[in-house]
């Protein structure tokens, strides 16, 4: 079975156009609010939008497409809600505020290109599994679907649980400057990111049930690389390592994979 090239080009052009309009609207919102960190709110909903767009574009009813769209919707809404709650009553994120100051007169074009358009391009790459699934709506269900959904569910639980514990911990003024070491945070310094990655690999495994599904692994590979090496853990750890208590915590706690903590000497 060959890859339906015409359908692939049509799907990619359509979702890219939708996301172009979507991130442009968010750019306008950022100018109105004077907050470029609204881009973080746009991320999860944008990927969910791609999944929903594919659900509309595929003319043949597909249980797998409906299932994947539901997974994307749940993931996107949960993530956006979590970020929104974190932003409430706070000023612009320090990273975005620093760029606002550094970019000076070039602030608007650089914000549009380097934050919103770049994020839109990453959305299309990360969400490619949903596009690929639309190419083969009649592909039969296999054990890959079962394993993928189970892995995605475990990831969702881990991310939701760890985010809840962190939100409660940071909301308590008595914990200012302290490090969360309870629950999942005892076994991983970033259990929420671990859960995030699990969800995307669950989606990737589901795609292995369709022809050429290995191509769709570009989604989980990209999100894993972003979290581990680019915009996730590295940026966060750079800030956290300024806290001596966190450095001690880091010496005995796994950075990513949940593992038993090292014994203190």
Q: Which range best describes the helical content: under 10%, 10-25%, 25-40%, 40-55%, 55-70% or over 70%?
A: over 70%
N to C succession of SSEs: HHHHHHHHHHH
N- to C-terminal separation?
59 Å
How many strands in all? Answer: 0
**How would you classify the helix and strand content by structural class?**
mainly alpha
Proportion of residues in extended strands: under 5%
Total number of distinct structural domains: 1
Quote the average pLDDT.
Answer: 93
Biggest sheet features = none
CA-based shape: globular
What report would you give on this structure?
The chain is mainly α and 265 residues long. Helix content is 71%, strand content 0%. It has helices at 5-33, 38-57, 63-87, 94-103, 107-126, 128-135, 143-171, 191-207, 218-230, 233-240, 244-252.
Task: Give a brief rundown of this model.
This protein has about 260 residues and is mostly helical. The chain is built from eleven helices and no strands. It has helices at about 5-35, 40-55, 65-85, 95-105, 105-125, 130-135, 145-170, 190-205, 220-230, 235-240, 245-250.
Topology:
Blueprint: H1 5-33, H2 38-57, H3 63-87, H4 94-103, H5 107-126, H6 128-135, H7 143-171, H8 191-207, H9 218-230, H10 233-240, H11 244-252
Key terms for this structure?
single chain, 265 residues, mainly alpha, 0% strand
């Amino acid at each position: 079975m060959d890859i339906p090239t015409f359908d692939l080009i049509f799907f990619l052009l359509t979702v890219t156009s939708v996301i172009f309009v979507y991130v442009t609207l968010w750019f306008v919102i950022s100018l109105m609010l004077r907050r470029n960190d609204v881009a973080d709110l746009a991320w999860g909903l944008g990927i969910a939008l791609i999944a929903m767009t594919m659900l509309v574009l595929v003319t043949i009813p597909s249980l797998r497409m409906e299932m994947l769209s539901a997974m994307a919707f749940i993931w996107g809404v949960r993530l956006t809600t979590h970020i929104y709650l974190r932003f409430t009553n706070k000023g612009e994120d320090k990273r975005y505020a620093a760029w606002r100051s550094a970019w000076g007169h070039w602030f608007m074009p650089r914000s549009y290109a380097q934050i919103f358009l770049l994020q839109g391009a990453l959305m299309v790459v990360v969400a490619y599994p949903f596009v690929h699934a639309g190419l083969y709506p009649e592909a039969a269900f296999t054990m890959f679907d079962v394993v993928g959904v189970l892995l995605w569910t475990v990831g969702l639980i881990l991310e939701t649980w760890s985010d809840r514990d962190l939100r409660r911990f940071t909301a308590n003024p008595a914990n200012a400057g302290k490090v969360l070491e309870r629950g999942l945070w005892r076994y991983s310094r970033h259990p929420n990111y671990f859960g995030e990655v699990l969800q995307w690999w669950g989606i990737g495994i589901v795609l292995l049930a369709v022809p050429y599904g290995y191509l769709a692994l570009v989604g989980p590979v990209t999100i894993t690389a972003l979290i581990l090496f680019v915009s996730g853990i590295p940026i966060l750890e750079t800030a956290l390592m300024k806290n001596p208590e966190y450095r001690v915590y880091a010496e005995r706690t796994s950075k990513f994979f949940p593992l038993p903590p090292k014994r203190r000497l």
